[in-house]
Amino acid sequence: DCGGGGGGDDGNDEKTNKFDFTTKVNRVCAKVREVMTQAELEGVTTTGQIISSGHFLFPILSTFAKESPPKLEEALTMIKNSAFDQFASGDTAGMNTKRSPLLLEKAQNSIQYLAFLANYELLFDTALGMYDFDLAKAVARNSQMDPKVYLPMLKRWRNLPDAEAKYEVDVRLKRYDSALKNLVQLGQDETESSEVAGSDDAHFEKCLSFINEHKLHKLGLELYEHHAHYKHKIMVALGEQLLSEQKGDVALTVFLAANPSDINGAKRAARMCGDWKSYFAYAAEDDRDEGSGHGTKESRIRAVAESIAEEVCFKGEMKGDMQKKRESIAGAARIYLDYCGDVASAVDMLIKAEMWSEGRRVSRLHSREDLVKMCVDAAVSYGQKCLGDFEDRISEFTKANERYGEVLEIRKDAKREEGDTGAFDIHQDDGGSVFSMASNASNTSLQSNMSAGSVGSVTSVSSVISAGAVSTFSITSDVDVNKHKSKFNKLGGKKKKKRPKKKGPAAKRRIQPGSEEELKSLVMTLKSNCIDEAYYDIIAETIEFLAQVGRVSLASQLFDSYNQMRVAINDSQQNRLSKAKAEKEDAKKKALKEGHDHDNTFVKIDCEDEVDALCCKMMPDALEQAFSFF
């Protein structure tokens, strides 16, 4: 049963019990080959015909060649074994017994037949991969290869040491793992037969160069497992390779895992990945510093520390995550303080990270009242900016949330109709906006509610489409009316046809009302205008700090403004959800009244849970209690 059902291992899908046709040819070839091979062993076919060994040689070769991928090595091995069996039996037909058995007529014909079934270059490379140069020569003779090319090459390899010949063959075939193994073996063979001092090191450098070129460090470490010195060099080379690939964090681990650790490499890796703590920890151990080399070790470390602090601060400012940004800038402050003794720069970094209390602590620790004042002034300025930001967020969120509820219904109507009809006949414009019969009411609402302006957000995402973006949906357009112009209807007049205006970049970027793009834009606007955890922490810390330094009025104003924003956003969410729930109940009642199954018409959009969960937290209990007295 070659093509029938079987277990999962035979190419069938156990769950669907369907035959895997991708394995069909291979399974048929294997079964046919099995039957023919068994017949040759028994000397008789299933029909009772007496046969000799090699009777099915060509058909069996065909089964090897037609598999995917072709089993050419097995086919060549079969040809070779058949030739040697024939030669051993004395059936040489007058051929010079000193010549290779592969030159027998049957072997030559078999190779020609296999070369007809498979690419001759692939066949030649397969023979080379078997390290059988006589077989490779026999294949080349029956192909289109130039004897001036392959004969000198094969002759050279025959005269090389076994490991070296295999290495060169592997390199030619791009089998680099095998090539490295043979190269290492060549060095071991040369060491056993040579008394020249330093030959091991010279050969290892050749191996290391090959390892670096083809990124074979893992295999190299395995091959030199019991050579500590060489293993260390490979580990260092691996670290350098990772550094060149900008993988500083991985390189740091590799450099330190080497035995002994490569401290200089670890420092460079730590600096690349921004791990300043590790850098300075190992800088204390390493006499080589990246400074100018003049002055004391401490002065050189200080010079490098200033540079690293700038790098850490710059990388921190580039990070999108607010919390990680603050941590990086705080790290730069720590470097200025611990390794540069620069209190002013450290406090400046803490102010950049909105860490007012820590900046005040460091300033007082070093008796710098001028820096304390700087922290207070920065916190006041930040608090005042927050007041305006809260007002903007209320406006942006409430407008976007109202429009979000409308667009969500449009998308649900479109998805619901698609589920009902499979392929639904509704209008779909270039922006992916789908308008169905069920959503016309929403479109009417859209046209009446849209304004010439657009609602922006913190991320500058436009979420309300201007009135100019509304398309006119009419059964007959001006183009249809003018379609049949002629001298009889005055429509053909002397008026020149206006060329359609080319759509510029602005037109292409316009978001169509009710589209998936508008929905995504609204979701982004809502998320960006809702206070995240990092911003919440900064606001709470700012209110607390302002109250502690005597700016109670501003702190109270900031506290109240935040709560107003929180209530406005949460109320907006609650109103939208209540409205949606009421509409859902009305739809359910209507469906039941009309005899429809309401559950089958229920549709949910992917973004709903995420948007519904948006809210602003209350201030910490300590602040709530404290400001209840003011």
Automatic annotation (TrEMBL):
Which is one GO molecular function term here? tRNA binding
Set out the biological process GO terms recorded for this chain's protein: tRNA wobble base 5-methoxycarbonylmethyl-2-thiouridinylation
Basic residues bias spans: 486-511
Domain of life here? Eukaryota
Q: Pfam families annotated for this entry?
A: A-sol_ELP1 (PF23925), TPR_ELP1 (PF23878)
Domain ELP1 alpha-solenoid, residue spans:
16-155
Q: One GO cellular component term, please give it.
A: cytosol
Domain ELP1 TPR, first and last residues per copy: 166-361
Protein's name in the database = Uncharacterized protein
- Per the UniProt entry, what species is this protein from, by scientific name? Ditylum brightwellii
